[in-house]
Design a protein that fits this description.
With 209 residues, this protein is α/β, with parallel strands linked by helices. The chain has 10 helices and 6 strands. A 6-stranded mixed β-sheet has the order 2-3-4-1-5-6, covered by helices on one side. The protein is globular and about 55 Å long.
């Protein structure tokens, strides 16, 4: 069950899932629109792929009540930009009861955002979740630009280290002041505080004085 911030995100995810299903030769139905029962009178419009194995992938926009009473694997995408992250996570936790999984993915949206507070609580040991942190340079080491060159050979040509360095530099310049937040997992100081709480807590470690 994939939940993004918009129907367009849901469609992008379901298209990618269908493409990978074909590459792995999994038997599945065509992508279809469905009305997902979220407990309301009208339901919510969603996109769905049904597999011959009996499993399905459903993608829809983020509404906490859509997760109520569900089982399986929930993916909450761009969590820092949903309307009520706390309620969405609370609803998703029910997946864990029956052995399911919850994956929360996002770029940052300010230091005071609930998503960054969630990250801070995990690092402080208040929440027993796991963190996977991937910035632009991590992705480049794993072959991001090589893949871009392969897919868009007409634009970039054959990959070289020099082309990758130039592409990286241009991308950072294009993002400007937003590069740290969008590309390097560093939340922006939206409040303008000199020492915000999350920054202090992140450095509260046992160390000699």
């Amino acid at each position: 069950l994939y939940m993004g911030t918009s129907h367009d995100m849901a469609k992008e995810f379901i298209d990618a899932a269908a493409n990978w299903a074909q590459l792995f030769e999994h038997v599945c139905s065509a992508i279809g629109e469905t009305i997902f029962d979220d407990g309301s009178d009208d339901g919510v419009k969603a996109l769905k792929i049904d597999f011959a194995s009996g499993f399905s992938i459903v993608a829809l926009s983020s509404k906490p009540r859509s997760l109520r009473g569900r089982q399986g694997f929930a993916i909450l995408d761009e969590a820092a930009f949903v309307d009520n992250l706390a309620e969405l996570i609370k609803a998703a936790m029910a997946f864990l009861i029956w052995g399911g999984k919850v994956l929360i993915i996002s770029t940052h949206n300010g230091v005071d955002n609930p998503f960054n507070q969630l990250i801070t609580d995990i690092r402080a040991g208040r929440l027993r979740y796991g963190i996977v942190r991937f910035d632009l340079d991590d992705a480049l080491k794993d072959g991001l630009f090589e893949r871009i060159c392969l897919v868009n050979a007409h634009k970039h040509g054959e990959w070289t280290p020099e082309k990758e360095a130039d592409w990286r530099e241009k991308l950072i310049a294009d993002y400007g002041d937003g590069a740290d937040e969008e590309l390097y997992c560093i939340p922006s100081q939206g409040s303008g505080a000199w020492l915000p709480g999350p920054l202090i807590e992140a450095r509260m470690v046992d160390a000699p004085v």
